[in-house]
Amino acid sequence: KRLPGPGGKVVLKPLTAAGLGIAVRRAMTRSGLRAAKGMRGIHATRHHAGMQILRATDNLRLAQRLLGHAD
């Protein structure tokens, strides 16, 4: 996040989870994913990626491992 600081210098602030969610939703809207796929945010993107992996490999265990699931 960029904020104007003293003397007109830009001060960078850490990105929060909420800020990341907003940035991803904006990017999805601009790219057309929200309209075309009905995706709403980061979690929907994760589900979409999981389905793409599953369709490409037909291997549920591989998809789970790539997404970081323990079981």
Task: Characterise this structure.
Helix content is 61%, strand content 8%. By secondary structure, the protein is mainly α. A two-stranded antiparallel ribbon has the order 1-2. The protein starts with a strand and ends in a 5-residue tail after the last helix.
Largest sheet: 2 strands, antiparallel
Quote the beta fraction: 5-15%
Strand order of the largest sheet: 1-2
Helix percentage range: 55-70%
- The count of strands amounts to 2
Shape: elongated
Secondary-structure element order, N to C = EEHHHH
Poorly predicted ranges: none
Mean pLDDT: 82
Q: What would you call the structural class?
A: mainly alpha
Instruction: Quote the distance from N terminus to C terminus.
Output: 36 Å
Q: C-alpha Rg, in Å? A: 17 Å
Q: Count the helices. How many?
A: 4
Q: Main attributes?
A:
mainly alpha; 61% helix; two-stranded antiparallel sheet
Sum this structure up briefly.
The protein has 71 residues and is mainly α. It has helices at residues 17-31, 33-37, 42-57, 60-66; strands spanning 2-4, 10-12.
Set down the secondary structure blueprint.
Blueprint: E1 2-4, E2 10-12, H1 17-31, H2 33-37, H3 42-57, H4 60-66
